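Service request form, structural biology core

Requester: graduate student, group of Dr. S.
Request type: structure prediction, single chain
Budget code: on file
Notes: please return the result as structure tokens.

Sequence provided:
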Amino acid sequence: YPAPGSPRLAERVREVIGQQEVNADESWGLDHGTWSVMRRMYPDADIPVVQLSLDRGKAACEHVAMAKKLLPLRKEGVLIVGSGNIVHNLSLMRWNDDTPYPWALEFNTLVTELIQGGNMDSLIDYPSLGEAAYLSIPTNEHYLPLLYSLALQTTEDQLAFFADQVVLGSISMQSVRIG
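Core staff response, request fulfilled:
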């Protein structure tokens, strides 16, 4: 996906988050979590894309605090996309059977309800949400982008859910549009 970058926007990200928190790296291309979504949204690759990587060593609450620092960018017209999955367990995927696991459906529904209820504390403390959460989020790099997006929600923003489907047994395609 040949989208142009934006050194100016990358520097603006560093300004709003903090110089010590963000390091520029032009040697790394766009991750599949970015280009696979953006190529469908902008097939002509005609908008600049700046991808942020996640420090998985940080607690979820630290990610939310960092995400809130991005709000000025949203107010400046920057589209912020959090690309991941509510349920993402590759080790339990069903390649020959698309039937969702009950725990995958349970967690997908629970997270949707928590989002609709504005319950960020529970979404941040996802390990306390039980066995379905444990199975749905074996590693957090696919869940954390949701928290970044939700951290930028304002009281005026409407929520819209789409693609509410669990595929391959253990991958949620549920998506939420904020604003």
